[in-house]
Each structure stands twice: as structure tokens, then as C-alpha cells.
Amino acid sequence: MVWEHGSDPPNVRESNSEPTSSEIVPSVLVFDMGGVLAPDADKSLWLQSFAPEDRQMAEAAYLAAFKQGRVTRGALPQDLWRRALTAAGMPEDSEWRKFDDAVQRGFRPFWEVLGLVDRARRRGYRVGIISNHVCGWFDPWFERFGLGELFTEPALVLVSSRVEVAKPDPAIFDAFLEQSGLQPAQCLFIDDKAANVEAAVRHGMKAVQFRYESKDGRPVDSVAVLSARLAACGVSLA
After folding, report:
1. Which positions are tagged coiled coil (predicted)?
2. Which is the most buried residue in 5, 162, 200, 201, by most CB within 10 A?
């Protein structure tokens, strides 16, 4: 190929032009909760309360109640369980607290992943959370384990039930960006679900898929794997 005299070679950007969004290195790491920072809800006690042939129905009743609760402002755990109990044909005044206590006990942090979060902060990255969750579960987990010491900027923590919309709906990313004052290209989003990762990318963020362990507690992705995926997006924590 022959270039005309005085012209720039093809695909060479002028040095004084603005970088494109794909060239901006993210400065904010935004994590999902369930599957990334902590386990998904442990529904085993709930399911064991039903005969084997009814457990699929019980699972569906729980999931429907959770999906409604995670987009309901001010939703409380008892509201979620009453919906699930009603859908499963059980009295609303059943001992919902025992099911709720079992679920909340299961929300232990993935300490190794939180170590990576801390390492990112020490290297100057800001960190946040976008979680599809019920505030009545998320807030006690966040407070019980002192996560405010890691996620120190409230504007970078968004729970779906506060804004009445859940991932992968693009409106939740709009809400996060409005609340935080960030631009999409500044953010690198980490989630365990492909649909949520793809939604973040369509919204202009960089994103990686990562799941620390399976629903039955078996290892899936190591923190080293996550570090490598972040590095591929320009975020080095080495």
C-alpha cells in the first residue's frame, strides 16, 4: 500500500485525539455479590421441608418470590418468605424465620476474593458492587462482616431492590452510573452470569465472567483466574 505524502498511515490515530472507550483503562472495579463475593442463597432447609416430589414446585415458589423481592423497594425477608409460602401452599404464619436464618447464615464472604478487592484498593482502584438482592439480606451481610471498610464509597454500592430494577436490565447500569457519577468506560464489571456480563458490555463497560464456587460449594474459578481476566482488561494487581 502506498500512502499519500503527508497523510497518516491507516489505523493510526492522531496523537492529540481523545482515546476511544476501548482504550481507556478502567479505574473502578464493580463486583456482583452472589457467586462472586459470597455464595448464592442456601435454600436446602426450605427444600428439605417438602416431599421429594414437591421440591421442584418449592424451588419455583422461592425463585418467584425472590425475583419479585429483589425489585421491590423496601422489601423485607418476611415478605419474600410469605410469598414463597403462599405459592407453595403453606400457611403464611409458618416458621419463616427458620428458613430465613438458614439463608442468612449461608451468606459468608469469600475471603480470598475480598483479599483481591483489598489488593485492588491498595493499588489505587476504586471498588463497588451491583447486586440483584433484597436489602433485608444484603445489608446485614454487608454490616456483619464489616464490608464498609473495603467498599468505602456508598455511591458505588447499588442493590437492585433500592432502585426496583435488576440485572441484566440496562436500567440498573444507568442507575449505578447516575448514582456514582462515573462513565461506563471507567468501570470493569465482574459477575458470574453471562447475561449480566454481556449487558454491562453493551452498556459500554468492560466486563469479565467469574464464579468462585458452584452452588454446592465446589471450586469453579480461582482468584488467580480472576486476576488474569482483569489483567487482560488492563487492570494489573500483580
Report:
1. none
2. 200
Q: How confident is the model at residue 22 (pLDDT cuts 50, 70, 90)?
A: low
- Percentage of residues in the chain having pLDDT higher than 70: 90
| pTM greater than 0.85 | yes
**Hey, is 4 helix, strand or coil?**
coil
Average pLDDT of the segment spanning 193-205: 97
State the SS3 of 131-200: ECCCHHHHHHHHHHCCHHHCCCCHHHEEEHHHHCCCCCCHHHHHHHHHHHCCCHHHEEEEECCHHHHHHH
| Domain identity same for 142 and 167 | yes
- Number of domain units in the chain: 2
Owning domain of residue 122: 28-40+108-233
Residue 127 within a domain: yes
Q: Is residue 11 exposed (0-12), middle (13-18) or buried (19+ Cβ within 10 Å)?
A: exposed
Is it the case that residue 210 has pLDDT exceeding 90? yes
Alpha helices in the chain (DSSP H): 44-48, 55-69, 77-87, 96-105, 111-122, 135-144, 160-163, 170-180, 194-202, 223-232
